[in-house]
Specification:
Oligomer: single chain
CATH architecture of the largest domain: 3-Layer(aba) Sandwich
Strand content: 5-15%
CATH class of the largest domain: Alpha Beta
Largest sheet: 6 strands, parallel
Shape: elongated
Number of helices: 17
Number of strands: 14
Strand order of the largest sheet: 3-2-1-4-5-6
Length: 446
């Protein structure tokens, strides 16, 4: 099949490369000429493990190409995906759909023959109806269907998520469109991937519901972590105990400094606004949104308290800036709240992130960026782990202690244990865990 992907952001580029790897012919379109020129040279606009190799292989094999002019590709396309940005609209938190609607109008003027236009962007319920109306207006005689095919990709694991998904959700209103989408995803049938076929509005809402539910799990375990600190309990043991319940599951039960990224903050807010407008507020989601914002600032206060109540004149080494490991994405990262709060408290911040420096420099001021984790730690008074990159999981804690003047390590991701930190000569502070843990044997399952 010939697939056109409008937008080469995170979703569009990963999806386009994976569809090409399935054997389809894919053209990725973007109005950013510099980005397209870079992609033609093999320069990725985002960091995603394995993406450069995947793109390069499919370009060489002739299945994947990039262009700024969509006319020729759309004229011969079987399926056109709209994978443009839907950022939160300033002032009210609704999803800004201007890019989606502009793309829909452009596509409508260019389609020739039966085409399925698919919203891959995360959009509020009812967006597909408006996309269909726009295309019908600009091309009243065109033969097309509009479908919804939300993405469920995790940054840092997106290629595996696309090729081995838990499910594929397709929302369409005609059998013809459904059959086209079945054929598009036929390579996944070998893995017996469930294809969930629904109405278009249901598919649109399913994406928001999924992200909101995961955000609720994160918000819940973070509040349980706070309770653990008051009760002398261990949040990691609690997460394991409840996560083994198949009704709950273990994922997204790691206590930390709050969620960030391109999806959860934007999508929970958009769902909240849509629900309020429809007179059916999602009060649980509203509470999680508020709690998550408070969580990030509370983490800065935790650092100050761990340092004795005052960080004025202190140099704090921050390890990890991106919202999660294996990405350079800084959108809504907890560090964007924590670092300025520490600076406002009088601290000097030195930071290291394996991939996020360039993006972080666009958002943070007055921060010294180090070339490695130990370079970041050297001469600092204390250290804070914000993002759990793999290279932070095996630090030489004795060396860490030697480099830090105050011998204080604050671990907002619970990477280390108290005994190991104490043996290295560190004062150690983590999230939701008592300083004296029960024997590990107590966690045995059998």
């Amino acid at each position: 099949m010939h697939v056109v992907m409008i937008g080469t952001g995170y979703v569009g580029l990963v999806s386009g490369a994976c569809f090409a790897d399935f054997g389809h012919t894919v053209t990725c379109i973007d109005t950013d000429a510099d980005k397209i020129a870079g992609l033609k040279r093999g320069v990725m606009p985002i960091y995603e493990p394995g993406l450069d190799v995947l793109v390069g292989a499919n370009v060489r094999d002739g299945r994947l190409s990039f262009a700024t002019d969509p006319a020729e590709a759309i004229a011969t396309a079987d399926v056109v995906f709209l994978a443009v940005g839907t950022p939160s609209r300033r002032g009210d938190g609704h999803a800004d759909l201007s890019y989606v609607y502009a793309a829909a109008e452009a596509v409508g003027r260019l389609i020739r023959g039966y085409t399925v236009i698919v919203t891959k962007s995360t959009v509020p319920v009812g967006t597909g109806d408006e996309v269909e109306a726009i295309i019908r207006r600009v091309a009243p005689h065109a033969e097309f269907d509009v479908a919804s095919n939300p993405e469920f990709l995790r940054e840092g694991a997106a290629i595996n998520d696309f090729k081995r998904p838990d499910r594929v959700v397709v929302g369409a209103e005609t059998e013809r469109a459904i059959e086209v989408m079945r054929e598009l995803y036929r390579p996944l049938y070998l893995n017996e991937t469930p294809l969930v076929v629904t109405g278009r509005r249901t598919a649109e809402l399913a994406k928001y519901a999924a992200n909101a539910f995961l955000a609720v799990k994160i918000g819940f375990i973070n509040e349980i972590a706070d309770l653990c600190e008051q009760a002398g309990a261990n949040v990691q043991h609690i997460a394991r105990a409840i996560g083994l319940d198949k009704r709950i599951g273990p994922k997204f039960l790691n206590a930390g400094p709050g969620y960030g990224g391109s999806c959860f903050p934007k999508d929970t807010l958009a769902l909240s606004r849509t629900a309020h407008d429809m007179g059916s507020p999602v009060t649980i989601v509203d509470a999680v949104i508020a709690a998550n914002e408070q969580r990030k600032l509370a983490m800065a206060q935790l650092v100050v308290q761990a340092a004795g109540g005052n960080v004025a004149g202190k140099t704090i080494a921050v390890l990890g800036l991106t919202f999660k490991p294996n990405t350079d994405d800084m959108r809504e990262a907890p560090s964007l709240a924590i670092v300025p709060a520490l600076q406002a408290a009088g601290a000097t911040v030195r930071a290291f992130d394996p991939e996020g420096h360039q993006e972080a420099k666009k958002h943070l001021t007055g921060v010294e960026f180090a070339s490695g984790p130990y370079e970041c730690l050297e001469g600092a008074d204390l250290a804070v782990i914000i993002t759990e990159w793999d290279q932070f999981r095996a630090l030489d804690l004795t060396r860490v202690a030697a480099l830090l003047d105050d011998k204080l390590l604050i671990d907002l991701r619970n990477i280390y244990g108290f005994e190991d930190a104490a043996k290295a000569g560190l004062t150690y502070r983590s999230i939701g865990r008592p300083t004296h843990e029960a024997p590990r044997a107590a966690l045995a399952v059998g």
